[in-house]
């Protein structure tokens, strides 16, 4: 009689044919929310769309307790500066929609999250960024009133403007009027009239009160005196595109030609010896003219404009600050002498520049090690160089940024290891007596990772010519061990406890691959402890003499061994004598 294997049934004659387990119904065989698939000699189940197996496999057999559950991603994730809107489903394919809060926008489009087959939400790569309000087209009217416009954006509430004014007399540099005024309005073309002094030179800064951010506007103008309200020599200046000035004349004489003298002085707060001074004359018949200046980045400028050709020369002074350069100004960085850097600066020749360094150092073999340095240097060369105070055996990330540029350069730098600390041992001189136990203390990984500790036995005559980094020392069983010395013990750094470990010289044990052989009696030896550090294909060692042995004898352990051996011989002889009787 023949029995068919599992998954097969007899055909009533002499053959076994495949059994279709799925014929009993998917729900019966596989459970709810499944589809059954027959195979030769077996079957498997797959969860329907919107469900997943409890064992997280696509196909399963229900005899292991696996069943299908509905995919539910739970509550959608939060998006910073956004709110969840509308109804959403947490099932497979469900989509959650977000809308940025007021004062924020998503430039890349709508923000959504989708429920995936893994039961987690796939978050959007888009985010809500703060709307930076730009203040444009600032102009003066009616002598003491100012109007401006703001860029369109999704801002519906009222905005608080901070208006800072500073006034100086035309005939003196002394400040006579300084005031800060707040204006709250939802108008996109605000205007305000101020109580200003007549015949005064004003600089006005307009910005948005925190926490909102804005691109501030600066305008300089001159208020008229009682006898100058109709004078065509009155003018004001506003800043356009950071380096351009817009000059507005109040002249009622169409086509009258006027000459203006510009005096420009630039300084950088972080450089004591940096000055950028220039002056020129500008002639125009236009009532509104634009003058663009050739200015350096990241520099604070004072611009004084004087109307020439009149008995009483009227002047307007304005301050402006240029932004750091957008393009990179550092290139061709190279490393020399391991810790020194040299680079190419694309600044103007003979102009001082300050460079900010931010350095991070880490060691993979010393998790607690962390070094961070922040400092700056000043150089006028177009090929500056500097050397860094770095630790050996360390991976560094070095960020260099010229303060006139907003883009830093980051490079990686690795310093090689140096010699490990000298072994801490207590020196012994032994004359014909037994050797004490060697107490091996764990060394600190100051200059690189410690790899191993070795104990070397040398003829005393070779102590003065021994080279610590030499790799010629061999094991006790080599042919040259008697004349050149040998390694009697080696311990890997990971096998040395944090406090110390003790070794008996000549205990006939193996330490690593080296046999700790007994010293030959009557010989003179030098015993050296060597600490080795290896990293990045570099090997460094440091050595210390632990003991000088003259006319060597047995160690304490060997003496005990010899005594026990003698006792055993005596007992055997006594036993033989007793047997003979």
UniProtKB/TrEMBL annotation:
Keyword terms, alphabetized: Disulfide bond, EGF-like domain, Glycoprotein, Membrane, Repeat, Signal, Sushi, Transmembrane, Transmembrane helix
Bilayer-crossing regions: 559-578
One MF annotation (Gene Ontology) recorded for this entry: calcium ion binding
Topology in the lipid bilayer: Single-pass type I membrane protein
Transport recorded as keyword: no
Chief site of localization: membrane
CDD domains attached to this UniProt entry: CCP, EGF_CA
Domain Sushi intervals: 71-130
Every EGF-like domain range: 18-57
Pfam families attached to this UniProt entry: EGF_CA (PF07645), Fn3_PTPRU (PF23144), Sushi (PF00084)
Gene3D superfamilies assigned: Complement Module, domain 1 (2.10.70.10), Laminin (2.10.25.10)
InterPro entries named among the record's database cross-references: EGF, EGF-like_Ca-bd_dom, EGF-type_Asp/Asn_hydroxyl_site, EGF_Ca-bd_CS, Fn3_PTPRU, NOTCH1_EGF-like, R-tyr_protein_phosphatases, Sushi/SCR/CCP_sf
GO CC annotation: membrane
Key word Manganese present: no
PROSITE patterns referenced in this protein's UniProt entry, alphabetically: ASX_HYDROXYL, EGF_3, EGF_CA, SUSHI
Localization: Membrane
Name of the protein in question: Sushi domain-containing protein 1 isoform X3
Species whose genome carries this gene: Neophocaena asiaeorientalis asiaeorientalis
Primary gene name: SUSD1
């Amino acid at each position: 009689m023949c029995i068919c294997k599992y998954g097969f049934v007899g055909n009533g004659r002499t053959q076994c044919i495949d059994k279709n387990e799925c014929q009993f119904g998917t729900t019966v065989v596989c459970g709810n929310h499944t589809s059954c698939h027959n195979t030769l000699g077996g079957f498997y189940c797959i969860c329907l769309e919107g469900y997943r197996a409890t064992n997280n496999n696509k196909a399963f057999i229900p005899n292991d307790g696996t069943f299908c559950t509905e995919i539910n991603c739970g509550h959608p994730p939060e998006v910073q500066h956004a709110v969840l809107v509308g109804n959403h489903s947490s099932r497979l394919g469900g989509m959650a929609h977000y809308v940025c809060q007021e004062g924020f926008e998503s430039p890349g489009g709508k923000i959504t999250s989708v429920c995936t087959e893994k039961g987690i939400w796939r978050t959007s790569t888009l985010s809500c960024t703060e709307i930076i309000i730009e203040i444009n087209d600032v102009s003066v009217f009616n002598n003491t009133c100012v109007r401006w416009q703001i860029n369109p954006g999704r801002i519906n509430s009222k905005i608080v403007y901070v208006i800072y004014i500073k006034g100086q007399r035309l005939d003196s540099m002394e400040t006579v009027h300084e005031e800060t005024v707040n204006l709250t309005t939802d108008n996109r073309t605000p205007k305000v009239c101020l109580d200003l002094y007549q015949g005064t030179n004003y600089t006005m800064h307009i910005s948005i009160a925190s926490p909102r951010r804005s691109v501030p506007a600066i305008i300089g103008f001159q208020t008229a005196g009682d006898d100058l309200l109709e004078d065509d020599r009155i003018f004001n200046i506003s800043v356009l595109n950071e380096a351009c000035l817009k000059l507005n004349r109040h002249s009622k004489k169409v086509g009258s030609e006027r000459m203006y003298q510009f005096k420009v002085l630039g300084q950088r707060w972080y450089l004591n010896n940096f000055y950028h001074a220039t002056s020129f004359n500008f002639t125009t018949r236009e009532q509104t003219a634009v003058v663009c200046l050739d200015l350096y980045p990241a520099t604070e400028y004072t611009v004084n404009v004087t109307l020439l050709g009149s008995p009483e020369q009227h002047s307007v002074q304005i301050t402006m600050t240029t932004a750091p350069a957008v393009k990179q100004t550092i290139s061709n960085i190279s490393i020399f002498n391991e810790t020194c850097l040299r680079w190419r600066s694309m600044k103007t020749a003979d102009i001082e520049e300050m460079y900010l360094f931010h350095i991070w150092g880490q060691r993979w073999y010393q998790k607690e090690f962390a070094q961070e340095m922040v400092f700056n240097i000043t150089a006028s060369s177009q090929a500056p160089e500097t050397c860094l105070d770095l630790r050996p055996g360390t991976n560094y990330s070095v960020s260099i940024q010229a303060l006139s540029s907003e883009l830093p350069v980051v490079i990686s730098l690795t310093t090689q290891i140096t010699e490990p600390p000298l072994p801490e041992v207590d020196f012994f001189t032994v004359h014909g007596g037994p050797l004490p136990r060697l107490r091996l203390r764990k060394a600190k990984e100051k200059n690189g990772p410690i790899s191993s500790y070795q104990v070397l036995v040398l003829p005393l005559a070779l102590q003065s010519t021994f080279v610590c980094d030499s790799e010629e020392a061999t094991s006790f069983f080599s042919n040259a061990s008697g004349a050149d010395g040998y390694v009697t013990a080696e311990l890997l750094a990971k096998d040395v406890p944090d406090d110390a470990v003790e070794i008996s010289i000549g205990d006939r044990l193996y330490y690593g691959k080296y046999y700790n052989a007994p010293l030959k009696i009557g010989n003179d030896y030098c015993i050296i402890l060597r600490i080795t550090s290896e990293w990045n294909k570099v090997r460094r060692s440091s050595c210390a003499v632990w003991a000088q042995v003259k006319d060597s004898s047995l160690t304490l352990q060997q003496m005990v061994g010899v005594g026990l051996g003698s006792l055993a011989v005596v007992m055997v002889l006594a036993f033989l004598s007793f047997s003979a009787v």
